[in-house]
Amino acid sequence: MEVTARHEFESTALPQIDALYGAALRLTRNPAEADDLVQDAFVRAYRFWHTFKSGTSIRAWLFTILRNTFINRYHRANRTRHANAELEAQLPALGVEAAVGHPTSGMPSPEVALAARITRERIMTALESVPEDYRMAVILADLEGLAYKEIAEIMDCPIGTVMSRIFRGRRLLHKLLHDHAVELGLAQAPSPAGGDAGDNTVHIQDYRRRGRA
Amino acid sequence: MSLQDIRSECSDTAGLLQPYVDGELASAEQERVAEHLECCRPCRHAVSEQQWVRSTLRAVKRDAAPASLRARILAELDGVDREAVAAIPPRARLWSRVVSALADAGRGAMIMVPAGAVAVGLFFVAREGLAPAQTMPGGLGSALTQIREEPATPAVAAAPAVAAAPAVAAAPAVAAAPAPARPGASLPPVAGSAPGDLQLVRADLPGAPGPKESSAGLRYEIVRGGLPTGQHVMLVLEGGQTSNDFAGLLELIDRKFDQKPDHERDHKFEYRTADHQGRERNPQPTAAP
What we know:
With 213 residues, chain A is an all-alpha fold. Chain A has two domains: 1-74, RNA polymerase sigma factor, region 2, helix turn helix motif (Rna Polymerase Sigma Factor, Chain: A, Orthogonal Bundle); 81-213, Winged helix-like DNA-binding domain superfamily/Winged helix DNA-binding domain (Arc Repressor Mutant, subunit A). Chain A has helices at 3-13, 17-28, 31-47, 58-74, 79-100, 108-115, 120-128, 132-143, 148-155, 159-183, 196-212. In chain A, helix 2 (17-28) packs parallel to helix 4 (58-74), helix 3 (31-47) packs across helix 4 and helix 5 crosses helix 10. The longest helix of chain A is centred in the last third of the chain and has 25 residues, at 159-183. Chain A is elongated, with a radius of gyration of 21 Å. In chain A, 41% of the residues are buried. Residues 77-81, 91-108 and 191-208 of chain A have low confidence and may be disordered. Chain B has 289 residues and is of the alpha+beta class. Chain B is 42% helix and 12% strand. In chain B, strands 1-2-5-4-3 form a five-stranded antiparallel sheet. In chain B, a hairpin with a 2-residue loop joins strand 4 (215-224) and strand 5. In chain B, helix 7 (93-104) packs across helix 10 (246-257) and helix 8 packs across helix 9. Chain B starts with a helix and ends in a 21-residue tail after the last helix. Mean pLDDT of chain B is 51; it is low at 84-196, 204-217 and 235-289. At the A-B interface, helix 1, helix 2, helix 3, helix 4 and helix 5 of A face helix 1, helix 5, helix 6 and strand 5 of B.
C-alpha cells in the first residue's frame, strides 16, 4: 500500500486500538481471542482503508469491521438462536419488578455512591454475561459513548432496535449488579411496598389528569 | 404497579425515556420528559436505573491494548504492504453478474459456481502477470493458455469450481505454494457494473508440480456499502480433473444470469451449496441492509 495510506492508517485508525481491544475483550471474554480479533479487524480495515470516507466516524467504521469480524469468526449460523436462548433464560428471572425498578432504590445519588464500591472486575463480568446483541449495544453506548445513529450503523439495525437493546442490556446489568450489592450488604433489598413519595406521585398524577379532563 | 400501568399512563413519553437518558432528545422533548418524570414514579425508576448503569459503565476505565498486540498488527500491515500489486481490470458483464450473484448469495452460504466463471477470473489474474501462465503446471497452465488465446474454445481442463465462504472450507483445493496477490487501494473494482461488491484479498496460484496440485484459488471479501463484511468468497479452480466445454460454460452462466429479476435469480443461478463439505445446504437469504 502507498506510504501515505499507511501513514494515514497509523495516525487515524490505529489510535483506536484501545477502544477496539476493550470491546473485543468483552465480546470474546478472552484476552488471547481479543488479541486475534483486534488484529484481524485492523488488517481487514487496512486492506479496505480506501473505502473509509474521511470526515466520517473512524470509530464507527472500525467497530463495524470489528463486529463483522467477530460474528464471522466466532459465530456463523447459530448466533441468533443462541442469543435468544440465552436471553430467555435470563429475562423471566427478572420479572416485572426489574422492568419497573426497585421501589426503594429509585434515586440516583445513593446508587452512584454504590457504583464506586462495586469492583471494575465485577462490572465487566456482569457485562460479559449479558446476551451478545445487548452487550454490543451497551458497550458501544456506554463504554465507547457512541450515538444511537452510529450504533445503528455498526449493528446494522434500526435506531429503535438499538434503544431497546441498550435498555434491556442495562436492565440486566442493573439487576446483576444490584443483586451483587445486596449480597455484599452494600444495598438494601427492594421492599415490596412503595414509600410515601410514591403515593404522592400517584396522587399528583391523578390530580393533573382530572384537571386536564 | 406493572408494565401495563406504565404503558397506559405514560404512553406519550414511553418512547422518549431511553433517548432522554442518552441525551438524544431535542431540548423541548427533553423538558417534556423531565416534567413527566417529576410526577411519574415508575418512569423515574426506569430512567434512574438506566442512568445508573450508564454512569457506572462510563466511569469504568477501559483496558489498554497490550503493546505486543500493536506490534503484531504493525507487522501484519508490513506483510500487506509487501504483497505484490495485482490489478484486475473491470470487465465483462458476465463476470459482473457472477459477482453480484455471489454477493447476493448471502451470509455464510457456500456456493458452487460454474468453472467458467472462475476461469474468467483466473484469466485476468494471469494476464496481469500476477502468476505467469507458463509457470503453472499441468492442466491449469494449458487451460489458461487456451483461454487467453481463444476464450470461446472448448476443451479446457477445468473442473467444477467451488466458491465458498469461509475460504477455509475450500482450503484443500488451494495449491501448496501460494503466490499472494495483493489487494488494496490501487485495486480496481472486480465487477464492471457492481463495483466494490467483491474485493480480491488473496490469490493462491499453483506452484507445486503434479497433476493433483494444479489448482488455484481466488479469495474475495464481500463488501456492502463500502465496508468489508468479513464474509469471503473463495473461487477454486482445480485443474486436471475433467474436461469441460468452456464455451458451453459461458453460455450456461449467461443463461442463468441473464437479466432475471432478483426474486428469480437464486432459482435461475443454480449454484449448489457445498454440503459435501458438511455445511448448510441452502444459502441463507441475504439480510436487507
